[in-house]
């Protein structure tokens, strides 16, 4: 069973309980994190250190992948940017850990407001204005002074559907997430001498917007893609699992020309001793059957006292078939995207 949320409400009631659990095609819940309530007594003032918030943007162009994130984990912030050149295989990533999230601004909801961080030679700014999302990144010291700068507009019309889920964990913990795929991207990315002008007919962006209170030890799997199918319609994937109570909803779907086609359970089959071997994805209703063939592995490890995480993110090509809600068969050929496994203590 998958429960679709159709009524707007607050995310939390006055006692910190979720008012609804499930999924929706548009953001329906006001993210009132001020009502978080899972600690009592002397521990209550420490609640804010357990709330997790992030905005993760990703851009696929014909030649490269670019990503920028602003995150506040409560007791620390995390700023990271990375870029992958598909032709050369060159991948470079840099991150900052910001004590207590000082200087990080993140909005209450996903459909308006501004996310930002600025310090020394680093500036990240994400803002929402009408049907546009404006991304600005300027990190002059990136890769020993090579520098990276991006000015990008993502177009998100009001009828663009997105995968929104709210699922519970134990002890009044929860995850509220919005994923938007296949947003036409216009602008420029400059990385040293490499300059990429973005054509919105070929370059697409996505957003992973997360708010919630997680268990200290967490695990998840995620796969995502934004591209075009054979008849030039935009085609996106969002598959995930490994965390929370998904009896009301999973985040599994594919997105065809801005419309969500919801899937139930999807299995991730891969070799965790060799992530570069092909992965297999199949859903419980036999509507999705994909082989993912990686061509590049990104490994990111963080070990800073109370924060300990390891992510294996694989870039590759999806091939297979998917069936829409109305029974149309979609052939998926060489759709570039990524799949990942993530273990975290945070």
**What is the succession of H and E elements?**
EEEEEEEEEEHEEEEEEEEEEEEEE
Main β-sheet, in a few words?
13 strands, antiparallel
Going by helix content, strand content and strand pairing, the class is mainly beta
Portion of residues within helices: under 10%
Overall structural domain count = 1
Residue ranges: pLDDT <50 for 5 or more in a row? none
Distance N to C terminus: 31 Å
Number of strand segments: 24
The backbone outline, from C-alpha atoms, is globular
Radius of gyration: 19 Å
Taken as a percent bin, the fraction of beta residues is over 45%
Mean pLDDT: 95
Number of helix segments? 1
Description:
The protein has 346 residues and is mainly β. The protein has one domain. The longest helix has 4 residues, at 142-145. Strands 2, 4, 5, 6, 7, 8, 9, 10, 11, 12, 13, 14 and 15 form a 13-stranded antiparallel sheet that branches. Strands 19-18-17-16-24-23-22-21-20 form a 9-stranded antiparallel sheet, with no helix packed on it. 1% of the residues lie in helices and 59% in strands. It contains 1 helix and 24 strands.
Short structural description:
The chain is mainly beta.
What descriptors fit this protein?
about 350 residues, mainly beta, 13-stranded antiparallel beta sheet, about 0% helix
Question: What topology does this entry show?
Answer:
Blueprint: E1 9-10, E2 22-24, E3 29-30, E4 51-60, E5 64-72, E6 76-85, E7 91-99, E8 113-119, E9 122-129, E10 132-139, H1 142-145, E11 148-155, E12 163-168, E13 174-191, E14 194-198, E15 204-213, E16 217-228, E17 234-241, E18 253-256, E19 259-262, E20 266-269, E21 279-283, E22 288-304, E23 307-323, E24 329-345
